[in-house]
Amino acid sequence: MTADGGAKVAVIGAGTMGRGIAQVAAMAGHEAVLSDVDEGQLERAMAAIRAALDKGVSLGKVEAAAREAALTRLSTATGLPDAVEGAQLVVEAVPESMALKRSVLAEIEAAAPEEAILATNTSSLSVTEMGADLRRPGRFLGLHFFNPVHIMALVEVVRAKETEASTVEQALAFVHGVGKEPIVVADSPGFASSRLGIVLGLEAIRMVEAGVASAKDIDKAMVLGYRHPMGPLRLTDLVGLDVRLGIAHYLHESLDSEAFRPPRLLERMVDEGRLGRKSGGGFYEWGNER
Length: 290
Known about the structure:
The protein is an alpha/beta fold.
């Protein structure tokens, strides 16, 4: 795996993150295969990728020829063995469940080439625990991309306890090659970004709960006062309140810190199905922007 294109990259899981990773890999010149057990999900993912590339062309940020070349390099597969055959890098991007991820990684390792690097796109779960049953844990690490993948510059390269130095070096080369900026972090609950981001988001929710200010004004304070590109509550809506709640529970238990105890307001909103943009409403009303 080098900074240049030409490798085969398999992405397992065609949700928001998986399709984004496949898109940037194809744009960088890699042969990208997006895999999911749900054929309908693959169709929706490909439609979203085409729409993102079309928007890039219309804004003058993507050349029409580059769009066509990327789509030519991008394919889909419902069968995991077909997807990972001959791959130099396999990125697991299934939902944030330790049991599910471990199960999928076991399937990947059984089918992928021995020299392939295996990576997880988890935003907070223990990469070391996730790879504990792998036969080749030295070839495994975390690659935490950010949403939307084609726009956000950061990738956290998470070094698990058994990750080999050469694996980190190859992962860094891949990240640079797809036009992203990596940081290397040791495997720790929440890594660097989620740990800091969740604290800010949870405190903002507590402020709404206590009536300190509206969600809109709290977000405005962080955008105008601290130059954040987006306020913590709008970001929570985009990430998903249920996703944020799951991460908060995990970090509260793992770090034994009250800073990560989920606010009752967050728990109540999730119980009511107010999950943010994907449900049409959270701290903001999204309507047709779902």
